[in-house]
Amino acid sequence: MSLQSALVGYLISLLLPKPISPQENVVLQTTSTATGTMPLAAGFVGILPALSVLDPEKDGSSPIMLTWSKAILWSCAVAFFGVFLSPPLRKQVIIEEQLTFPSGTATAQLISVLHDIPPPGTSRADDSLRHRRGYTAIRSEDEPRVDEVVIESAEDEPSQEEREVVRKEGWIALGGSFMASALMTVTSIPSLFCPVSIKTFHLQQLFAYFFPVIFSIPLFGRNLAKNWLWTFTPSLSYVGQGVIMGFPTALSMNLGMIVGWAILSPLSKYKGWASGPVGDMTNGARGWILWTALAVMVSDSIVSLLPIVQEVVTRSATVLAKREGSLRLPRTPVTPSFSAIARSEEECTDIEGSKDIEPLDRLVPTNWVVYGLLLSIVLGSMLVWVVFGGEGIKPWASVIGFLMGGLLSLLGVRALGETDLNPVSGLGKISQLVFAFIQPGNVVANIIAGGVAEAGAQQAGDLMQDLKTGHLLRASPRAQFYGQLIGSGVSIVVTATAYCLYTRAYPIPGPTFPAPTAYVWLSLARLLRNGHLPERSGTFMLAFALLSSGTSFMKTYKRTASYARWFPSGVAFAIGFLNTPAFSIARLIGGVVELLYRRRLAARARTEGKDPSSVSGIRLIVVASGFVLGEGVISVVSLVLRTCGVGVASCWGCVPGTCAGCPTSA
């Protein structure tokens, strides 16, 4: 999100009389990230959908559907905790430990290219742009290794040609991909056969809404589509997401799709372990393989956190030992003049040093952080109690949830800074396990507590990437803090309103928005309450947990080995289980496009005598961003039509149970 925000913000600024500065672009994308983080951090795609499908017999509670006002209050409860966590975490992981934060570094590299300034730091632009969200590019054997530190020379800096391309062709590339994605969203089946003029495109703009088969093509036959949910969604937005996440991550997701939907799903069905319809999350194969995905996610997250925990414990022990040693040593008096000189030297330390060079008036005051954290915890706990009442989580338990969120956010942020992967899914599950003892048997409290803890870790991690960008480009941390507060505040209203509109127009979870993570939250809460697993799922959970732990161990502790890059990402592998094949295949196409494009750039660089690692592929990022933005914007039209009660025109070609919006899928 940071890359796209910085890119679009820069392109918009070109229309202004005076373009924005790099530091202003940092604040812009920081505010944008804070706004866009809320749907994930506040659980609008996981926690709230899970609460809406509660079963009184299984869960001891009726479904909980939040009104607009309660959605606002819930958002307020979790909106600012992560923001106030950011300043102290910044001081520790960015200033003192100087963690990489690859996505934040990539955004800084992109902004430096857009604004024609020297690239920050000493990392390769290409490594930074590629190494994000746990993505390590597959290299040829003769290419240098990622772990080698290479000082950028003039030849490694982004070329003037790339800068001019972005300036002159940025809007063309972004607008073209935007319109292509929008037209793909709104193109109809008849338009594939009827030649039309460009002038009549506006007449076709809503056809995909009226002919939903366009986004649920039975590519592998109607039998596989109807009985096993194997369809294909030719969404350019999904393709763009695949480009952004990179080939290895997209490949890991599709490996999970093959194992889950082509092997385990038919196996559980034919063995009678999942007797219901395949798409049933309770008795069907989809609900059965969910447990295996949960085991993979949790085991992968825990193993990836082990070195982080080990380092935290080691550092803490070292600090305590030094303090005990310093207490035994006689104190040397320091004159006021020497003290002032020392402070001045610390303030003027180079950016690559171990101290913060920012003056105090650009930093967030400590008392703001302390009072903000206390207020967000107390007010958040009260608001959670107001929203969910006495049957939900107790106020004192909410306080524990916030405190756990603070502790877990430290682990998550450190993992994010080193690997570019925030293991919030595993951190949330750890909170659920703890609350199984604090409020046993309470499914609602278990889900809410996990959501509160995950919110802090999710928000702090996403905002920390922006603070890393600001640190590299010398943006004011206090200005970024203001942007985070503004973005989070605006997102409260925007997110709650959008969620209520979408829940009125579509069933969530449903065919259009399956919200698979909702069932992950609910399934674990039910397991902790009832202790019951679907037949034989425990065996496969154990087997895949061990397998995932082994691969995660190799990726974590043997990351410099040549074979480590061939191990799939555990979280991406599990997501392939959770999503139906329609979601994963299009992302694989995007990943393949990304791989081929970068190989082509590298080959051209070699023929021109340039370093292949110096290519940044900004054009591809521009096009992929347009794909994602185009479909997102045009989908608002579908939301308005659905809210107004406008139905589809024809279900021609639709396979029952697969086409979103079609009555045959209801």
Protein described:
InterPro entries: 2Fe2S_fd_BS, OPT, YSL-like. It is a multi-pass membrane protein. This is Oligopeptide transporter. Belongs to the oligopeptide OPT transporter family. It is found in: Membrane. The chain is built from 26 helices and no strands. With 666 residues, it is mostly helical. The chain has 2 domains: 1-6 and 21-119 and 368-519, no CATH class; 152-157 and 159-322 and 535-666, no CATH class. Helix 5 (68-79) runs antiparallel to helix 21 (477-505), helix 13 runs antiparallel to helix 26 (618-643) and helix 14 packs across helix 15 (285-328). Residues 122-158, 187-206 and 332-354 have low confidence and may be disordered.
In helices, the fraction of residues equals 55-70%
**Helix count?**
26
Biggest beta sheet attributes: none
Mean pLDDT across every amino acid position: 76
Radius of gyration: 25 Å
Question: H/E series, N to C?
Answer: HHHHHHHHHHHHHHHHHHHHHHHHHH
Structural category: mainly alpha
Estimate the strand proportion.
Answer: under 5%
Number of separate domains: 2
Report the count of strand segments: 0
Uncertain segments are 122-158, 187-206, 332-354
**Outline, from the CA principal axes?**
globular
Task: State the end-to-end CA separation.
Answer: 33 Å
Main location: membrane
GO cellular component, one term: fungal-type vacuole membrane
Membrane topology: Multi-pass membrane protein
InterPro entries: 2Fe2S_fd_BS, OPT, YSL-like
